[in-house]
Amino acid sequence: MQLEKAERLEEKITKLALRLDSANLSDQDIDRGLELIKEVQAFLEQTDYGNCIAVLGATGAGKSTVVSMLFGNSKLLVHHEDEYTRVLIAEKPLPGINIQYGSLSKTLLPAVLSASVNGQSMMIVDMPGTHDTRGPFAELVAHFILNWLLANHKNVQFIIVATPPQERSQEVRLAGSVNRACVSGSNTVLVFTKCDADFDPRIATKMKAIYPEYRDIPVFALPRPRKLDKEGLDYSSPLAEMKLNVLRALASPAKQASAFAEPIPDTAQLLLRTFCKRNIELARDALSQVLGSQYSPQQSRYTISTISELLAILESHDPLTFETFVGQIERFVPRSSSISGDSTVLRAIERLKFMEMWSESPLMRCKGEWLSAKCLGKLEQIKRNLNSLNLNVHKYQNLERKRRENTIVVSGYCLRLTSSSRLYSTIEDFVKATNSTTEAIPTVVLIGFKAITITAELRVWANVVIISPEVCMAKIDLSAEGQAPPPVQFYAIPGQSGVHGVPGRSGGILTIICNELVNPQFIHLSAGQQGGDGQNGSDSINEFDLESERQRFRTDVGSALNSLTSLKEWESVSKYPYLPFGLYVSKWSKREMPPDTGHMALTAVGSAITASGVAVSACLPLLAPIVAPTMLPVGTGMIRKGIQRNTQVTLELERSIKKGKAAGRPGRGGYGGCGGECYVVKGGHEVRTRRGASGEQGENGLPGKSLQTLLLKGTVTQEYGIFGCRQGEPTVDIAAVLMNDATCTNVPRSGFSPEQQQSTMRNSLLRRSVVEGYYEEAFAELKKTFSQCDFPDVEMP
Asked: What tens digit of pLDDT does each residue of 67-76 get?
């Protein structure tokens, strides 16, 4: 059954080989040839070859005869047919070994038999002869069979059968087979057939075309039977020793190296090139037609990564196999379509695979050879469209101001922020405008669906949220610079304490949500703002009239002096300086005045009386007891009185008056703002939380001017006579002095306004749900803008 199948298959191949020997090839003949190759492959796969011995040789060299001799046990007689044929003709070949007669090729499919070589089971494969006389297609089939055997079986040994070379070309072909078999590391035996009696098999050692390292391979010679041998030449018993040596050489350990590579015969190469050319044309027509019918720009949707890959495909000029190119082109059509599943394309791929198998190398062509000129023009248009789309997506920027939320959201596929960009100035203007209209800190949300690159130093007072898979940043400073504003009025309202300084603004919060952060060293911890200065306390308010107080002081001084009628009462003031009406004697003094004319006359009269009394007592002794006690005391008293002087007393009186509203307390300097915080969320996990320095406290306010004291001073001068009586009216000089009295302030030890001082408030961190909402809104706008793109890999880190 197997033999009948092989014979029918060989007959089909032979018939087709006759048609394929012409220059005009039809698609039907090409398809039929490929189908026959499939049948040959199926036929080969029915046998498990295991460890193989492949018998190689040209048609008519005697391969089948050598196989029967080496592995048969019966007597083998070989005859010579005529002088023009060099074919060995053997009787009783081994079963399965078809020994043919004549110089025409008749064996196409390999004959296989099982044999034991030194106790090891081996499959002996009698391969089809090279240089098949049935034409190039038969040679291609034979070449395919050998390649299939070598590709699917590693343990293959070789018996090369050849006739003694008569020409240089025959020697070169034989040397090539020897070199390729030896390079593979397999055991190789060379058997010469049809040898004359004087033939020396060591000729192989002298063939220059054989590599020097392979010239010592085992070589054997079979004698050529003569025409006179009527009964034939017995190849069984006389060659038993040679048979044993051949089998021993085949059974020695082999060293695997490179794969055996048998070249395609020249005539078959011409047919193969014709096959390849025609199959490339068929493949180009099939692919061009399918691409033209299935490509639709309106239905084509690509991811950004796919666009980049497609552009790389379109810009590449590297040669590709047809199947690889089909896989690339298929990416341009909608998902519902399939180019590689099209029957004509599948047939073209299958054909070209056979061409590659025959040629033993991939058929690589540039895309210009795999597509028609019309389709190439369409690809150029596709490339322009994809370049434009790719550029627009990467340049895309969207800006949305949310005034009520004091937020600006900036998004882009690859967002890039530079100092010269319009986007940078827009963000700065928004932050400044918000800072000028509200005390609330603005928020800047930067969204990069693929990446964010910040090359400019961003200095704004704002909360900044950066969201992108990849963030490459320069310095970002969100410090609240400067100082909180001072009070509107430098001094408090009269009668009130100063207000405390406004607390400084807290530094902005930086939040980075990413998968990869480049240059994290540029993260700057934002500082808080310096607190505002406290307000100065209000000055005191004096509420007295100077002239009125001066007149009242004069009147009160006069009333107090009226009670001092004698010198003795005036002198008592030095011990008790407090007088009515709040008067205080700060200084008291008196001095004697020099005698005047009256005092001198009185002294003279007293002296005269005294002298008269002395004289009367001396002249009239009898009157002395009467005169002396009378006149002498009077005279001396008058003298004493005359000698006495007036006394001048001076009093310095004071009275202080303080009326009005006390000075206000100063306000404290405002607290410095809190340092800004920095949060880095990488891969869904918070990896860093840091806080900047707080701002300095503002300057404390100064206390207001205290109440002034009105100090009224009066200098009163009064003279008293020799009898202590007041002489005339006192003289009163009044002076008024305004004095600043620090001891009279109402500021307590703390020295500051009792009002509660406002504390510093930290900026609030934006909630995750709010951030996600901003991201989803921006992403929806991106998809709306580029409806022809898919963004399956875009998601919030």
From this structure: 877 877 644 4
- Measure the CA–CA gap between 211 and 496, rounded to whole angstroms: 117
pLDDT band, residue 443 (cuts 50/70/90): very high
CA distances from 435 to 402, 407, 509, 673 (A): 15, 12, 16, 16
Handedness of CA 137, 140, 145, 151 (dihedral sign): negative
Give the chain's domain count: 3
Taking only Cα atoms into account, the Rg of the chain, rounded to an integer number of angstroms, comes to: 66
Other Cβ atoms less than 10 A from the Cβ of 775: the count is 22
Q: Does 310 share its domain with 164?
A: no
Highest mean pLDDT among 41-50, 127-136, 269-278, 515-524: 515-524
Assigned domain for 398 exists: no
Question: Any idea what the CATH number is for the domain that residue 92 is in?
Answer: 3.40.50.300
Does 681 map to a domain?
no
- Asked whether residue 691 is assigned to any structural domain, the reply reads no
Please give the biggest Cα pair distance in the chain.
239
CB atoms within 10 A of CB 506: 29
Domain closes at, from 338, 371, 393: 393
Separation between Cα atoms, residue 396 and residue 414, nearest integer Å: 8
What single DSSP character describes residue 786?
T
Range of the domain at 607: 595-644
* CA distance to 84, 422, 424, 485, per residue, from 436 (Å): 115, 21, 19, 12
**Is 629:556 a contact under the CB 8 Å cutoff?**
no
Give the CA count within 13 Å in the CB-facing half-sphere of 29.
18
Evaluate whether residue 427 is within a structural domain: no
For residues 144 and 112, what is the distance between their CA atoms, to the nearest angstrom? Answer: 17
Do 311 and 225 fall within a single domain?
no
Q: Do 199 and 66 share a domain, yes or no?
A: yes
How far apart CA 467 and CA 447 sit, in angstroms, is: 5
Residues forming beta bridges with residue 25, ordered by sequence position: none
d(CA 539, CA 707): 8
Give the C-alpha separation, 132 to 271, whole Å.
Answer: 14
CB distance 177 to 260 below 8 Å? no
Clarify whether residues 343 and 212 are in a common domain. Answer: no
- Cβ–Cβ contacts within 10 Å for residue 440, how many? 12
Q: Give the pLDDT confidence score for residue 269 in this predicted structure.
A: 76
Q: Which two tokens stand for residue 705?
A: 């001017």
Claim to verify: residue 152 and residue 229 sit in the same structural domain? yes
Question: Which string of b and e fits 660-675 if b means at least 16 CB within 10 Å?
Answer: ebbbbbbbbbbbbbbb
Beta carbons of 471 and 517 less than 8 angstroms apart: yes
- Single residue among 332, 366, 393 that ends a domain in this structure: 393
Within 253-296, strands assigned E span none
Mean pLDDT for the stretch of residues 109-124: 78
Q: Are 7 and 108 in contact (CB under 8 A)?
A: no
Residue 347 has pLDDT above 80, yes or no: yes
Residue 177: CB partners within 8 Å, gap ≥ 6? Answer: 56, 160, 162, 262
